[in-house]
Design a protein that fits this description.
Shape: globular
Strand content: 25-35%
Bound molecules: shikimate-3-phosphate
Number of strands: 24
Strand order of the largest sheet: 22-23-1-24
Structural class: alpha/beta
CATH architecture of the largest domain: Alpha-beta prism
Helix content: 25-40%
Number of helices: 12
CATH superfamily of the largest domain: Enolpyruvate transferase domain
Radius of gyration: 21 Å
CATH class of the largest domain: Alpha Beta
Distance between the termini: 8 Å
């Protein structure tokens, strides 16, 4: 395999790592970054955003908000790096001048959401409340993902949607001048569905209510509150699914909101790859400052601790209404556990990397309640079961479960895992490659730019051994 340095290389191979040590700055939270740009675009006056994720998904949302009339500028400072640092650490500041709730205007061209399910669904909610027609598309992965989960409730506000078969993009949205405030009981715990309805509800006269079978991440609710919007939440309602309680949120529409500063915490879903690498590579010891620890996002950390992980939280604080802490992680011997279905909403994006931790643990790990994994950037249930099996790890996928037997990858011949436009599948298998004698390649490392643009450089700086390679040189 010939290692190359050119950024044109789109594949990568990960070989056994040295101990991972040091302090690493994890990029900004993807969910919060989308919401910061959207709310900045709806506020009157200037919103300043620090720590914004500069991943492709978020940059698509920035471009779309600008196409809808917001003014967005990245403040250039000499010597700045795209590393998500706070301004006090020399990081970049984004400035958004919004148009007010109800003030967005018709875009002149098709809105391309790239790989981003979150961007597509949240922006669909927004567009449903404006009296013009917009057209939305995305990459091959996003064009295969279901939009009917937002089309169904948003159609009840008076908006109309025209899309391909099975509710897939491309899609035309014709919004309504007078959006009806909905009461919607969602069949799935999905923050994207909830947030699309709440963003539409922000434009409706009256109270919009969403009820979920279990609480999904509440970044929209917290961001609304940060902007002074009246948001009411009821937790612990009877009748939830898989041992969870139902969750209800109400928002009072048509507020006047003004711009304000937002510090975006580092993304726990991106930190997950560093945390698991440190737990699996002997001798590792990482400090990860400023990680979001919203209780509805920390299911992976909780599960890893049950498996025997040594993770310490210090300097707990709040940023823009979100709980944040510094994490210290040390190499730990992990053992298999049963992960209950009710934990799925709080770690929905983390099952691929948990499956890697499980593959290197002692004993068996069983994960339940994974149906939603099949409609993420790729079918992650099949991707993990097939990819692990190819690496010699015993992994069995059920209809909505995954069972992984530990012991690590077998053999020492290099192997290539297909990424299928899925950033988290790519990063997960690069982490597995760090742990043993079998080099593991991914056929498309460019997918990682979706959420963690400098993943390879950062990991190599800490002790990993990941090389960019040409696809033609893949094993
Ligand atoms: C997200 C919600 C989750 C998650 C996605 C980001 C969000 O999707 O998988 O990466 O920012 O609202 P669902 O809400 O569909 O579960």
């Amino acid at each position: 395999m010939n290692a190359i340095t050119s950024s044109a290389a789109s594949a990568a191979v990960s070989s056994k790592a040295r101990a991972l040590t040091g302090r690493a700055i994890v990029p900004g939270d993807k969910s919060i970054s989308h919401r910061a740009l959207i709310m900045g675009g709806l506020a009157v006056g200037e919103t300043t955003i620090t720590g914004l994720l500069l991943g492709e998904d978020v940059l698509r949302t920035a471009t779309v908000m600008a196409a809808l009339g917001a003014k967005i500028e990245e403040t250039q400072q000499p010597g700045d790096k795209h590393d998500g640092r706070l301004p006090t650490e020399g990081g970049r500041v984004w400035r958004v001048w919004g148009r007010g709730v109800g003030g967005l205007s018709e875009p002149a061209d098709v809105l391309d959401m790239g790989n981003s399910g979150t961007g597509a669904r949240l922006i669909a909610g927004l567009l449903s409340a404006y009296p013009f027609t917009s057209f939305m598309t995305g990459d091959a992965s996003l064009r295969g993902r279901p939009m009917d989960r937002v089309i169904k409730p948003l159609s009840q506000t008076g908006a109309t949607f025209t899309c391909r078969s099975k509710g897939r993009l491309p899609m035309a949205v014709t919004g309504t001048p007078l959006p009806m405030p909905l009461t919607y009981e969602s069949p799935i715990a999905s923050a994207q569905v909830k947030s699309a309805i709440l963003l539409a509800g922000l434009h409706a006269q009256g109270i919009t209510t969403v009820i979920e079978p279990a609480a999904s991440r509440d970044h929209t609710e917290r961001m609304f509150r940060h902007f002074g919007v009246d948001v009411r939440v009821e937790t612990g309602l009877a009748g939830g699914e898989a041992g969870s309680s139902r969750y209800k949120v109400e928002v009072v529409g048509q507020p006047e909101i003004t711009g304000r500063p937002i510090n975006v915490p580092a993304d726990p879903s991106s930190a997950a790859f560093l945390v698991v690498s440190a737990l699996l590579v002997p001798g590792s010891h990482l400090i990860l400052p400023n990680i979001g620890i919203n209780p509805l996002r920390v299911g992976l950390f909780q599960t890893l601790e049950e498996m025997g992980a040594n993770i310490a939280y210090t300097n707990r604080r709040e940023e823009a209404g979100e709980p944040v802490a510094d994490l210290e992680v040390k190499y730990s011997a992990l053992k298999g556990v049963k992960v209950p279905a009710h934990r799925a909403p709080s770690m929905i994006d983390e099952y691929p990397i948990l499956a890697i931790a499980a593959a290197c643990a002692e004993g068996e790990t069983h994960m339940a309640g994974l149906a939603e994994l099949k409609v993420k950037e790729s079918d992650r249930l099949s991707a993990m079961a097939n990819g692990l099996a190819a690496c010699g790890v015993s992994a069995t996928a059920g209809a909505d479960s995954l069972t992984v037997r530990g012991g690590g990858p077998k053999g020492n011949t290099p192997i290539t895992i297909p990424v299928n436009l899925d950033h988290r599948i790519a990063m997960s298998f690069l982490v597995l490659g760090m742990t043993g004698d079998r080099p593991i390649a991914v056929d498309d490392a460019s997918a990682i730019n979706t959420s963690f643009p400098d993943f390879i450089g950062l990991m190599n700086g800490l002790g990993a051994n990941i090389e960019a390679v040409h696809q033609r040189d893949l094993p």
